[in-house]
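Subject: Predicted fold for Sugar specific permease, 132 residues

User T.R. writes:
Posting the sequence so we have a shared reference for the thread.
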Amino acid sequence: MSMSIFYFTISIIINSAGNVLTLVTSAKIHPSYLGSAYWTAAEANLSVAFGWNLFWTFLILGIVITILNAILVGHWNWHRALGNLVFMVPFSALIQFFENFFIGKYPIYSGLPAANTPVMIGFWICFIFKFW
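User M.O. replies:
I've generated the structure tokens; pasting them so everyone works from the same file.
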């Protein structure tokens, strides 16, 4: 059981870092050559539309989707709902943490550089596809 929790924790960290990395790098490359996952991009656009940060957007949309799934299935399953909440709270918090880190809101790191030249665009494309 403890190894399952360990792997669950590692998977949330890697998944949230990867999602935010695609968001931030696609925002840093002009013109945009890289995309993002559909759900991540949709939630990032919702955060801009409503003026929320990514934590609240991911958490609220996760809760709404949990309720919508229960309506579609036809009954409320507390085990499934709590399982989704156990995933969504740390995932949303890590999404916000990594977004702040990658865009440079923390004093120890100034964020990822913008890619406005062909050399930097090539660097980002090689970085994303080679190391991730």
